[in-house]
Amino acid sequence: MNRLADSTSPYLLQHADNPVDWWPWCDEAFAEAKRRDVPVIISVGYAACHWCHVMAHESFENEHVGALMNDDFVCIKVDREERPDVDAVYMTATQAMTGQGGWPMTVFATPDGTPFFCGTYFPRENFVRLLQSVATAWRDQREAVLKQGSAVVEAIGGAQAVGGPTAPLDAAVLDAAAEQLWREYDATNGGFGGAPKFPPHMNLLFLLRHHQRTGSPRSLEIVRHTCEAMARGGLHDQLAGGFARYSVDGHWTVPHFEKMLYDNALLLRTYTQLWRLTGDPLARRVARDTARFLADELHRPGEGFASALDADTDGVEGLTYVWTPAQLVETLGEDDGRFAADLFGVTESGTFEHGSSVLRLARDIDDADPEVRSRWQDVSRRLLAVRDNRPQPARDDKVVAAWNGLAITAIAEFQQVAAAYALAGPAEDANLMEGVTIVADGAMRDAAEHLARVHVVDGRLRRTSRDGRVGESAGVLEDYGCVAEAFCAMHQLTGEGRWLTAAGRLLDVALEHFAAPGGGFYDTADDAEQLVARPADPTDNATPSGRSAIVAALVAYTALTGETRYREAAEAALSTVAPIVGRHARFTGYAATVGEAVLSGPYEVAVVTEDPAGDPLLVAAHRHAPPGAVIVAGPSGAPGIPLLADRPMVDGRPTAYVCRGFVCERPVTDEGDLVAQLTGR
Q1: Which of 283, 504, 559, 604 is most buried, with most CB under 10 Å away?
Q2: What are phi and psi of 233, to 5 degrees?
Q3: Verdict on whether the full-model pTM lies above 0.90
Q4: Degrees to nearest 5, angle at CA 55 with 51 and 58
Q5: For residues 212 and 277, is the Cβ–Cβ distance under 8 A?
Q6: Cα–Cα separations (whole angstroms), residue 255 to 5, 300, 351
């Protein structure tokens, strides 16, 4: 019997026809294991995971392996994106036992969920031997198995503990974090570390804010170089926009082809902010194309943004994306084919498998002559039209609350900067930029409405939905933080008070149900399902930690409302992360990003105007705002916008009010005066 057919998780649905008698994560599965007196196999993965597919094909689709699993175990399949709390606990156990982690994750546990043996991918022959060995040990060496499980639980309990040392997250700590990133920076290829190389979006956001505060040219140069290297490499889809999950090499050439919503949301913020601060044409183009990718490829009309595009197409990595010189000539003709091969670095020997190449920009296109850019755009359109007729990767179309929050915030920032730079950029793609801003705005609003309407159930967030149906999994701390921050962004963009109210309600739930002693936060609510340990990870990894995300939302909400208790909670939480920031900067990028906002003030900018669209004061605010600033615009006393209360226009002219840390400057009506207040120049 298979129980996955009604799941909202595409990953679980991929396993619905396996010969394995899978259970979803539920109390009934553990009760069945206890009744049968057999251990549990907890198999954790996600829909876009290449090696998850490999292990499924080799083992879970095999009748013999399925029989072994069914005879001696109760088998539970978990989507790590749907249940990040379960994934966090057992990933900590896997790392404690093996020194590393990853997916697929394979955990053997007692009927009460205590892990006693963990691993990741196992080839079929190895997995069969492991199944037989564990079943024998459970029957004949039960005491040793239970002792091992107790030791693992003790280890993961300590790893997930709250409390510990605290310190202010001040300028000295943030400067030390920046210096550590400078030391670890790959000056040749950009980014940090070697292969596999992941896009360091949160570290780059921090360095941009550090540059704003300190004027550090090194922080800005690291961002510029890394953003250019990623954008010109195979990590970036040169035809349709968007970024793959990581590069399998150290120089961004060959990606692991899955495209994740959270990476693209955070990279959109990075390129948007680089564009805002420098006017860089490459950053402008990549921000535009990433916003277009989110709107065209991941947005689900009437819902939110899908989670990912698969790494494989028909079981083959890269099938959709790679090219040979002959294919370019066949598609474009002899002259344009040679032009494309030179521009995109497509060679006879290839950069990928079987003589094929991943497209990358081998030439600088953003500063090229208009004729060259026009030819590049024409060639790209024709190649994309042909590529669209190839088999396409599957899409994991479940809607994850936290990741949709990241996307909403990113697009809101992109819309603001695009409006501020409305007349800048090459004339030949002005219409394209306008079209992207229109569709991205619609997708963003669609997603925000979906989260508010579908994911908030009885005042609490649910983690996922699919096809308009909300899942059962409770929201975790990162969901509350990312969605509340997104609602604050929607409030600033739209001037609608309902978004600020919705953000405040989520933050109140987080403070009531997730707060830990000493200022920290747990990742799960106090009334959520009790696992073998209650996760409380303060580090930022592929996405912001729940703690960093909730602090970002608390800081923005305080600035928008003036309610200081939220600021106090944010500072207390940051103090629990500060001792880590100075020592492990690469794993606290979002915490450091928020820390820069707190150190900045953050600034509160209210533009009182009857016509916000295109108001020069609002444009100046969006172009020159310090780190983490909140910006609202509208008529004096507009309902639902606290920053506009009791703030009239001066002499009947649009007026800007700038405050920092609840201390206000004089109101100004001149654009230059506003820029001086925001920049100190």
Answers
A1: 559
A2: -90, 180
A3: yes
A4: 135
A5: yes
A6: 32, 25, 11
